Amino acid sequence: MNPADIQCALKKVRTSQADIARQCQVSKVTVGYVVAGITTSRRIATAISTATGLPLDTLWPGKYPGDGSVVLEPVTLGDAA
Fold first, then answer.
1. 41 with 47: CB under 8 angstroms?
2. Pick from 29, 45, 70, 73: CA 20 to 30 A from residue 39's CA?
3. For residues 21 and 49, is the Cβ–Cβ distance under 8 A?
4. Residue 55 to residue 46: CA distance in whole angstroms
5. How big is the CA angle at 29 (ends 60 and 67), to the nearest 5 degrees?
6. CA distance 67 to 32
7. What letter does residue 72 receive in the DSSP assignment?
8. CA-CA distances (angstroms) from residue 2 to 29, 47, 59, 68, 76?
9. Torsions phi, psi of 20, nearest 5?
């Protein structure tokens, strides 16, 4: 999405870049840079994604690969026969 689309998505859910900045405890400029794609911040991008309900890959295709979660397989401890 382009920055205007991301801003529009935030407005649709009655959230602003300033709200995201306060939530993440960063400046409004920093949030603006992430929205514009000038810099990256998974934490800020995730806050925007959560607020809008849109996945990171929809907001910034290819910029944040994966969803950031780690899946651990269970390990059984015992005899190695």
1. no
2. 70
3. no
4. 8
5. 30
6. 22
7. P
8. 17, 17, 8, 22, 47
9. -65, -40
pLDDT tens digits for 17-36?
999 999 999 999 999 999 99
Element (H or E) spanning 20, and its range? helix 17-24
> Could you give the CA distance from residue 65 to residue 57 in angstroms, rounded to a whole number?
7
User: What does the pLDDT read at residue 2?
Assistant: 93
Written as six digits, the tokens of 56 are 């990171």
Following DSSP, what letter does each residue of 26-71 receive, concatenated? S-HHHHHHHHHTSS--HHHHHHHHHHHT--HHHHSTTTS-S-S--P
Rounded to two decimals, the pTM is: 0.78
Q: Position of tokens 């059984």?
A: 76
Neighbour tally for 66: CB within 10 Å: 9
